[in-house]
Amino acid sequence: MSLRLPDQALLVKLFYQNDNSAIVALRKFRTLKGMRKGSLTAINLRLMVTKFEETGSLNVRSGRERKPISAEAIEKVGLQVEENKVSNVQAGTRVRLVAEVLDLPRSTVQKIMRNILRYYPYKLQLVQELLAHDFETRHLFSLQFLARLEVDPEWPWNILWTDEAHFYLDGSVNTHNCRIWESDNPHSTLQVPLHSPKVTVWCGFSASFILGPYFSRN
């Protein structure tokens, strides 16, 4: 039920005059207005009173009118994203930077990228760099492996594969994902050593057994 502001004010007034009873307030309101019944319930009235107590107003803000996103803006954002990927794949694409370059609201760029272009944020995965000579070395190893396999089919079962990993001991914080929520900027800093102490874990394994793990502190 849609009520005019004077009727809403009368309902709130009756609510307080009748010991905060929504049921009594509704009954008296309908009597004053000559209504036998109405769609407004006691729960709706309590919500109305709660809103009034929280905001001091009964008026519902209509908000700003939303402007439709133009096809031109969508095309510009799409081209800018592709340009960023070609120019520097490591830098990625930031919504804020695209908005600044195109002079568009950040919220508009966000909607275009997520809701229209269906782009999603992905984290760049770091892998070992391969130089030009690495490809030839790996290719030769593959050929030697296959040739050896033809002579001795059980040879791969005797290979000892090894790997190692480093674990830092100073409680390093990844500031990329770290946020400090404060009302004012605390300008917090964290001093870290140039060479952080770490533990290296080495392990070897074959088809039939595991060697290790072995730990060494650096």
From TrEMBL:
One of its GO terms (molecular function) is nucleic acid binding. InterPro entries: RNaseH_sf. Gene3D superfamilies: Ribonuclease H-like superfamily/Ribonuclease H. It comes from the Eukaryota. PANTHER family: HTH PSQ-TYPE DOMAIN-CONTAINING PROTEIN (PTHR47326:SF1), TRANSPOSABLE ELEMENT TC3 TRANSPOSASE-LIKE PROTEIN (PTHR47326). This is DUF4817 domain-containing protein. It comes from Trichonephila clavipes. The gene is NCL1_21978.
